[in-house]
Write a structure and sequence with these properties.
Helix 1 (about 10-20) crosses helix 3, helix 2 (about 25-30) packs across helix 3 (about 35-45) and helix 6 (about 110-120) packs across helix 13 (about 340-355). It is elongated and about 115 Å long. The N and C termini lie far apart (about 75 Å). Strands 1, 2, 3, 4, 5, 6, 7, 8, 9, 10, 11 and 12 form a twelve-stranded mixed sheet that branches. The chain is of the alpha+beta class. Helix content is about 25%, strand content about 30%.
């Protein structure tokens, strides 16, 4: 018997043998001269025949005794596979696409978020990280032809042609996918492999089956715990939405056997709109697999156990026998339109994984990460961009530093330098569930808040990111109403199980916050699930929690060392507000420098922090800060900036300050380039001016 597989129960094996031969239980009973009730008991597992009776069963079925004793599900050859299309509804109703697909954009960044979240939710061994690999593979020429032959493209192509109509959105997407395939002679495959996950376990149909929940049901979340990220059963549809053809193939290695096997359980699912082909009307859904022989399942496809050759031909081979699932998206595209090339799609996937799962990929000295993720790009199976392991510290250095300090127990109550991470606790009052629930009264949970200095290259400082459970980013918010002198920072809030606690209050907080997440899982807000599950006042608890976390952030970043804001008297004399402070007043409609703090460091460079007053408007301000040395006569020489640092309501790009629209104030910092100084910094007065950036609107 193949490694990783075991003998299945006699009843399951016998039921499948009868289906394959289209033999009824009564027919077998007559051949064995036993009652139909006895055969029924064997099939359902209520009883098992004696060994001599088993040999008789094998003889009636035309099998040798060894096959009967081995009882492993047979590997199905490619010639036994077929596409099965669901007939149109008898009542004449027509569906021009899967409504669930419109809950998300067909964007590879959304794919990375939703698919990886589903993998995290199915972690098998909690002591090992989930491994997720994204592989882009562009097929052309003979490689594309061989793949399409294995897919039985000639059989399904007429259905694509019939569905490719401009009368509805899904039809237009399919038409564009077919056009691109023919004109470019290429086909993009995106494969999502996960390891250390449960795999698609369970029967082909019915309840308590992960296989059925993912590949047959709609809006069936089937999550094992209340800490899971998903709760609507919508995230899986992003796999099909990312395919212009609505086509996904699956290969799953199971964590527990089904029909005596665990490896290479394959299936294909095609999502088309209603269409007519060859005089027949079809609902749009089709399955690729073994023909089901049960009378009540006539015309449907079952999953099958594939051989290695078939698995390779469908580009579904897995790198190891670790449990998990591979999803192959056929005809993948990025509907957002900002990732057209393979390089751009590769980079977008890496960025999306880093933005959403940096915390899950962060480890401590004595703790493993929850997730390991990578992206590889190929053409015709040959690597063009090597596997890129996503390192959270490369993409989110400040936030990663904050979480790692928490995991290592190295946080402080008050920061005294930029490398430290401050910690505080934010109360969340979890209301009781309706009907008595798990707690009859409200329970307080203490979420963990971490604050650290922003990295110099942070394009969006002064943000708070929130997460629970498996540490996927749920909510990101800009922290407002900060003192202008506040140093740029990043804040992280851990709630529920993300705090590392397994206490009752952490579990209750998990359930409550999960109910407060919309289908996109990008906020904690009022939802129908929150209203129907929890007692009155649940919405207010969420609002209170949001206010408390913002208050806690402001409190932490406001704990600063007392210092003379003006600096030494000699430096105050050397520092000027801006070029307009001594002359005509700049009009109110233009941003002006309101306050400057500065000092000359040991190298002789001016280090300044600048507060800016902004006239409020809907468009962002784009300005260039100019540093000059004041001289008694002649033109004031301009000195270069060695570094510009974003502060409140500000981001820095290529030497230009971009202030957020609607803001009334902003701040930034700067360090002058000593090599550009015409004289020593301590011997000249510094002027800071703001000028309109090139190409910026007034």
């Amino acid at each position: 018997m193949e490694a990783g597989n075991r003998r299945e129960d006699f009843g399951v094996w016998l039921d499948r043998q009868l289906r394959i031969r289209q033999m009824t239980q009564t027919t077998l009973a007559d051949a064995l001269q036993v009652t139909p009730a006895a055969v029924s008991a064997w099939v359902t597992g209520r009883a098992e025949p004696r060994e001599d009776r088993k040999r008789a069963v094998a003889a009636v079925l035309g099998l040798d005794e060894e096959t009967m004793h081995r009882r492993a599900a047979e590997v199905v050859t490619a010639s036994s596979l077929k596409w099965h299309h669901r007939p149109a509804h008898a009542d004449g109703g027509r569906e021009f696409g899967n409504a669930a697909a419109f809950a998300f954009d067909a964007d590879v960044a959304v794919l990375a978020r939703e698919a990886t979240q589903n993998s995290l939710d199915e972690q098998d061994d909690p002591n090992q990280p989930v491994r997720v690999r994204y592989t882009l593979n562009e097929l052309s020429g003979e490689h594309r032809r061989v793949f399409l032959d294995a897919l039985q493209w000639d059989e399904i192509e007429p259905h694509f042609e019939a569905a490719a109509t401009h009368r509805h959105k899904v039809g237009r997407v399919i038409a564009e996918g077919l056009r691109e395939m023919r004109e470019s002679d290429s086909l993009l495959l995106v494969r999502v492999d996960d390891y250390n996950c449960t795999g698609l376990t369970g029967a082909d149909y019915g309840d308590n089956s992960k296989f059925a929940a993912v590949l047959r049901d709609q809006l069936n979340s089937h999550k094992g715990t209340g800490t899971a990220g998903g709760s609507y059963g919508l995230g899986k549809i992003t796999l099909w939405a990312t395919s212009r053809l609505g086509l996904v193939l699956v290969n799953s290695t199971l964590s527990r056997s089904h029909e005596g096997r665990t490896e290479r359980r394959l299936y294909g699912r095609l999502e088309l709109p209603w269409h007519e082909s060859n005089g027949h009307a079809y609902a749009g859904l089709a399955g690729f697999g073994e023909t089901d022989m049960e009378p009540e399942r006539e015309g449907t496809a079952r999953s099958w156990w594939a051989d290695e050759a078939t698995t390779r031909s469908l580009h579904l081979e897995r790198e190891s026998r670790d449990p998990g699932t591979s999803f192959l998206i056929v005809g993948a595209h990025d509907a957002a339109g900002d990732a057209q090339s393979l390089q751009e799609m590769h980079e977008k996937l890496v960025k999306a994984l880093a933005d959403n799962f940096w915390a899950a990929m962060t480890s401590g000295r004595e703790s493993r990460p929850v997730l390991e993720a990578s992206v590889t790009t190929q053409r015709n199976g040959q690597v063009v961009i090597p596997e890129q392991r996503v390192d959270p510290a490369d993409h989110q250095p400040a936030r990663t530093r904050a979480l790692r300090a928490f995991l290592n127990g190295e946080t402080v109550e008050q920061r005294t330098d930029t490398t430290q991470v401050a910690i505080a606790h934010v109360p969340l009052l979890v209301p009781p569930e309706k009907g008595g629930g798990r707690a009859a009264t409200a329970t307080e949970h203490r979420a963990v808040l971490l604050v650290t200095a922003a990295d110099d290259n942070d394009r969006e400082p002064n943000r708070l990111v929130c997460m629970r459970g498996n540490r996927m980013t749920v909510m990101t918010r800009r922290v407002t109403d900060l003192p202008l002198s506040t140093d740029a920072f990043q804040a992280v809030l851990l709630a529920g199980r993300a705090t590392g606690s397994h206490s009752d209050d952490a579990e209750l907080a998990e359930r409550f916050l999960r109910a407060a997440e919309p289908p996109e899982h990008n906020d904690w807000t009022k939802t129908e699930d929150l209203f129907t599950t929890y007692a009155r006042g649940a919405r207010q608890r969420i609002e209170d929690f949001r206010k408390e976390m913002m208050t806690a952030v402001r409190s932490l970043v406001g704990r600063r060392e007392a210092k003379n804001t003006g600096g030494p008297a000699v430096l105050r004399e050397l520092l000027r507000i801006d070029a307009h402070a001594m002359g005509a007043r700049r009009p109110d409609r233009h941003p002006v420098v309101r306050h400057v703090e500065g000092e000359v460091d040991a190298r002789g460079a001016w280090n300044v922090k600048v507060e800016v007053k902004l006239p409020r408007r809907a468009d962002p301000w784009s300005l260039t800060p100019v540093a000059k040395f004041d001289v008694r006569s002649g033109a004031k020489p301009v000195v270069a900036w060695a570094k510009l640092i974003a502060g409140e309501n500000c981001r820095v790009e290529d030497g230009t300050l971009h202030f957020e629209p609607g803001a009334g104030s902003a701040s930034f910092g700067g360090v002058t380039d000593v090599s550009s100084h015409p004289v020593t910094g301590q011997m000249a007065r510094l002027i800071v001016d703001l000028q309109k950036a090139k190409g910026a609107a007034t």
